[in-house]
């Protein structure tokens, strides 16, 4: 999570440079834990990364920039979706953002547990320990509850942990991984994949080859967090898109080169979603005759996981607190401590994480549990993104004259191209996320799909039930949440005047609304 931009003592705003915004976006997005999943594909991972960048990373960044500058009031995605479709859809989007992060925690912490298992001197023993369900479950719970209590201390505390943990646990290990991986190849090491250009294009005749790649969309999630800073950039219509393109290029390069570094060293048949990054580090460091560094790298990666969890514990929780105080959640959810942290929300989140972590004991293997929770995270997050892209397109028609400091160029056609690409990509990834990957043993495929569908339905019904039961006294009298634009005008969400909108575009927007509603209630 990026830190707020500093203010000059004179009171004027200190503008962000292009390179500062580039670095902020890269740090917000890049994580190393998912690289082994894409290393399964070898050189074809390049195609998947580029596809997801074009149909997700860039659209998310540009669409979020327009929405953040057009509707800068409190609420974030809740505000944006609510302006287009009303408070029920807005509440669903906000709840999806919070709950997907909650589901994501066990998968991220599994990687942290595996990292800690590799601090021993014997790699074979370390691998066995990292596959032990009891060990993984214990570490997941200990680290998460520790992160929760750190979050209780407030913004200053967890922002420092996030900043330094990100440098120690993500940026430095990524640089070492890429340098050693390519040094291994340049130094004459035998690659574990076929190095030929024809391997870059996947075999689309085999449907199972693209199922696991659906999770790559989540690799790029989070770029919208920094959209709020678009107003702090000189000439945002020119410089912000340029910064986004550079950040997207840097992010893609880190992911592609890091994934290939693992694929060079670990045979495809031996790739393990939770262990392979640590095994690759151990093998590379042994090859470079600096194997003493392996336990240090394992600890660094674990620190990076803790920093990421602390950051995401505080971020979406704070957003949900704003929505709660606006009257959409009972007063119990609005309880805060002296540091203005939503303690009851944090504790409830910790209980849900603990419950989901027990799936590691029920499912056939740690790897299977890791995969199913990873896919559930993707599904829930994509529901939010589907609503966000739909809202951006819809608002071009319902509020065409709303001032926007940054506007996607090309008029409504430009919005349909950029926002439409993100919407189509999100829908495709959403559907593929329910298909069991053939590359990974997940036990019974029917059980796998049933768990995903069941949990998705439950998590979508929860906000619906809460919204239906809301009471007037839930609203905090001190809440500064501004009413939606259509509320202030005494109307309803939607297009107020269609007279100036071409008939074919009206039909497109109406169809978009129906697709959004059907997808969100799936």
Plain-language structure description:
This protein has about 525 residues and is mainly alpha-helical. The chain has one domain (about 25-475, about 510-520): Amino acid/polyamine transporter I, CATH 1.20.1740.10. The protein contains 20 helices and no strands. The chain has helices spanning about 20-30, 35-40, 45-70, 75-85, 85-115, 125-130, 135-150, 155-185, 210, 215-220, 235-265, 275-285, 295-330, 345-355, 360, 365-400, 410-430, 445-470, 485-490, 505-520. Helix 3 packs antiparallel against helix 11 (about 235-265) and helix 5 (about 85-115) packs antiparallel against helix 13 (about 295-330). Mean pLDDT is about 80; it is low at about 1-15 and about 495-500.
Please summarize what this structure is.
The protein has one domain: Amino acid/polyamine transporter I (Up-down Bundle). 67% of the residues lie in helices and 0% in strands.
| H-E string | HHHHHHHHHHHHHHHHHHHH
CATH class: Mainly Alpha
Helix content range of the residues, please? 55-70%
At the fold tier of CATH, the topology name is: Amino acid/polyamine transporter I
Which structural class best describes the helix and strand composition?
mainly alpha
**Describe the biggest sheet?**
none
Number of separate helices: 20
Just name the CATH architecture.
Answer: Up-down Bundle
**pLDDT < 50 runs, ≥5 residues:** 1-13, 497-502
- Fraction in beta strands: under 5%
Alpha-carbon Rg, integer: 23 Å
- Give the CATH superfamily: Amino acid/polyamine transporter I
Care to count the β-strands? 0
The span between the termini is 31 Å
Question: How many individual domains?
Answer: 1
Shape type:
globular
The mean pLDDT is 79
């Amino acid at each position: 999570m990026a830190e707020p931009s500093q203010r000059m003592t004179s009171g004027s705003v200190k503008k962000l440079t292009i390179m500062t915004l580039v670095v902020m976006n890269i740090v917000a997005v890049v994580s190393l834990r998912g690289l082994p999943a894409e290393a399964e594909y070898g050189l074809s991972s390049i195609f998947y990364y580029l596809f997801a960048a074009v149909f997700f990373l860039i659209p998310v960044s540009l669409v979020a920039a327009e929405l953040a500058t057009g509707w800068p009031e409190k609420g974030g995605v809740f505000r944006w979706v609510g302006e287009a479709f009303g408070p029920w859809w807005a509440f669903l989007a906000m709840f999806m953002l919070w709950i997907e992060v909650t589901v994501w925690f066990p998968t991220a912490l599994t990687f942290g547990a595996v990292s800690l298992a590799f601090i021993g001197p014997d790699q074979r023993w370390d691998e066995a320990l990292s596959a032990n369900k009891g060990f993984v479950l214990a570490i997941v719970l200990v680290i998460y509850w520790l992160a929760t209590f750190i979050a209780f201390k407030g913004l200053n505390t967890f922002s420092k942990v996030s900043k330094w943990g990100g440098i120690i646990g993500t940026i430095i290990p990524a640089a070492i991984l890429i340098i050693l991986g390519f040094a291994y190849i340049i130094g004459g090491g035998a690659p574990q994949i076929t190095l030929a250009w024809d391997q870059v294009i996947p075999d689309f005749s085999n449907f199972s080859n693209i199922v696991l790649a659906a999770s790559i969309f989540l690799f790029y999630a989070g770029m919208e967090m920094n959209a709020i800073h678009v107003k702090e950039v000189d000439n945002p219509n020119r410089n912000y898109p340029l910064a986004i393109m550079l950040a997207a290029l840097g992010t893609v390069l880190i992911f592609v080169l890091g994934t290939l570094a693992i694929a060079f060293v670990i045979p495809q048949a031996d790739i393990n979603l939770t262990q392979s990054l640590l095994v690759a580090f151990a093998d590379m460091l042994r090859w470079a005759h600096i194997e003493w560094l392996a336990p240090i790298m394992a600890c660094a990666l674990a620190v990076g996981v803790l920093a990421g969890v602390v950051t995401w514990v505080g971020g979406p929780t704070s957003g949900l607190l704003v929505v709660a105080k606006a009257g959409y959640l009972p007063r119990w959810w609005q309880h805060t401590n002296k540091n203005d942290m939503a303690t009851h929300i944090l504790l409830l989140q910790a209980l849900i994480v603990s419950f989901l972590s027990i799936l590691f004991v029920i499912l056939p293997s740690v790897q299977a549990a890791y995969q199913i929770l990873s896919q559930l995270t993707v599904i829930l997050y994509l529901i939010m993104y589907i609503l966000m892209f739909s809202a951006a397109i819809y608002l071009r028609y319902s509020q065409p004259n709303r001032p926007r400091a940054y506007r996607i160029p090309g008029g409504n056609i430009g919005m349909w191209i950029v926002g439409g690409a993100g919407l189509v990509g999100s829908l495709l990834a959403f559907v593929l996320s329910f298909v069991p990957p053939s590359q990974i043993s997940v036990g019974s495929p029917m059980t796998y799909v049933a768990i995903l569908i069941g949990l998705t339905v439950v998590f979508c019904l929860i906000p619906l039930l809460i919204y239906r039961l809301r009471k007037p006294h839930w609203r905090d009298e001190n809440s500064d949440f501004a009413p939606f634009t259509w509320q202030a005008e005494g109307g309803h969400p939607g297009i107020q005047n269609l007279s100036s909108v071409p008939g074919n575009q009206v039909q497109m927007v109406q169809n978009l609304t129906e697709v959004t509603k059907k997808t969100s209630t799936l």
